[in-house]
Specification:
The complex is a heterodimer of chains A (about 90) and B (about 240). By secondary structure, chain A is an all-alpha fold. Chain A has helices at about 10-50, 55-90. Chain A is about 85% helix and about 0% strand. The chains are: A mainly alpha (about 90), B alpha/beta (about 240).
Chain lengths: ~90, ~240
Amino acid sequence: MTTQANGSSTRWWFGMADLAGVSLEEAALGLERVHLSIADETFNVLRAVPVTRPVSEPVRLMHHGISRLSYRSVALLGRGVNAAAAIGLQPRC
Amino acid sequence: MVLLIHGLTELESVWSYRDDPNSTYATELAAELDATPVMLRYNSGLPIHRNGGLLAQELETLLAHWPVPVENLILIGHSMGGLMIRSACHIGRQMGHQWCRCVGSCVYIGSPHDGSWLARGAHWAAANLALMPRDYLRVAGEFIDLRSDGIRNLSCGEVTPPDFEEPPLLPGVDHYVVSGLLGRSRRHPVNTLFGDALVQEPSARGDERSGWVLAAIANFPGIHHVRLAHDPKVAHQLKEWLT
């Protein structure tokens, strides 16, 4: 409760980077789930239509694969920022 | 000593008057009572009972080192700050803290003693969305559920750890309640639904709490939740009660 120390500005920025990194990772993984589950609704319709049925599953696999790769790349970037911030936030001896 | 305790996600700056940032309820009361204004800053994301315990300990240390004996400690809490006062008083009394003997008055300004409709709504939405069959709806529920322990405590106004009995108000002390309303007319349906925007009037009064004896209650139609912390009308009422 209530502490202010000299040099806390740098720690504040590391704290912000820590928060931003976690937020980026969690947001990317959350959006991936939203995106894929909404896309599944469409692919389920395409699978029910005889004309599009043969191609719906390959397209779904490709779409999901590319999407996962994109979102997880962003999540990995967030984790990297988070890890770098954690180093800066380590207590100094 | 007049201690101001802010609410959830606020800082001590919430107490400052818009037209005079150096003045607060504490400075005005202190001038009339020949007292010292003190403001607390804390991490409102922690559980209320934990912050209450920390506050109790801080007050014990502060008063032990204060240059003169404190005769009258006035605790004023806005929103979650009011719940923290109840928690700190309960813990301080249990621990046999000396500061509890100095408390003369506790003022709860827009405090959700019976919970906030918004916190209850978020709790309900998160719980129900988690049961949905679609993943995107479950993600929405998980997003709403990304709340701190402090916010969760506002669903029912919990001031103790889970499974602990509801503590009574600190005995031998005057307890005052201040609440606000969005609309200027008391009977406006918006006031019934949303109270001061976050806390409904019955919750601010603690209508569901048993055994409460309040020294006085004041309601201010047309003053919303945040404004309750720095409004001249509320200041006037506090001076009337406490000086």
